[in-house]
């Protein structure tokens, strides 16, 4: 089996090591003998994205969002087709915001967005910064997801959230929601990078991509079951230190 990964704007949207999301998917596929082909897409390298099985887009400062805004809109229809055909997309922070109707940045300027989701983000002066612990709404074995957030934007929508905030701020610091889920589109404020810190969630993305492409029913029988004890112990060690009693 083979997966095509579209890695969007790695040169512009790659805050706090979001590239680690790509590395985690690649490595967990490699351990299972699943071939991964990576295709980098950016402003001056607009490769075709329609054959991608997974799309990854990282976060960025307002200035980075301004740079990609127009370019991203040219991909609107293809991104929409990708989402509607249930293929996974993981969009972090700045790029998550840009799938909504609007983003009002720190200078009160509106950055044109994709308008694929009924969602808006408005920047406020004080930033929401720190480690974050959520209880994910995904139906996966490990509900605990940890990461790091740093955003001025407050996001509001009525979709299913990626998770409920246990510690930290999430979408807006008010309603205890974090991120959003629509089909296999997942938007989240969690850097970290997110996937190396949360292997069960990484496998969920890989599984969905393989399910769409090959109709597989489970990852368990592919080559080997992975031993995640190192990742789990790392998560517990980080979590205990960061979140003390609540972890
Ligand atoms: N510029 C956005 C904000 O501050 C996104 C930041 C980010 O991607 N970490 O809300």
What's the gist of this structure?
This protein is of the alpha/beta class. It has helices at 19-31, 62-73, 76-84, 94-97, 194-197, 199-214, 229-243, and strands at 2-8, 35-41, 54-57, 89-92, 102-104, 110-112, 119-136, 144-157, 163-167, 177-178, 180-182, 185-188.
Structural class: alpha/beta
Distance between the termini: 37 Å
Strand order in space, largest sheet: 2-1-3-4-12-11
Number of H/I helices: 7
Query: What is the residue-averaged pLDDT?
Result: 96
The hetero compounds bound to this protein are:
glutamine
Q: Are there runs of 5+ residues with pLDDT below 50, and where?
A: none
Strand content: 25-35%
Description:
- The protein has 247 residues and is an alpha/beta fold.
- The protein has one domain: Rossmann fold (3-Layer(aba) Sandwich), CATH 3.40.50.
- The chain has 7 helices and 12 strands.
- It has a 6-stranded mixed β-sheet. Strands 5, 6, 7, 8, 9 and 10 form a 6-stranded mixed β-sheet that branches.
- The structure holds glutamine.
- Residues 15, 59-62, 65, 93-94, 123, 150-153 line the site of glutamine (GLN).
- Glutamine is lined by residues 15, 59-62, 65, 93-94, 123, 150-153.
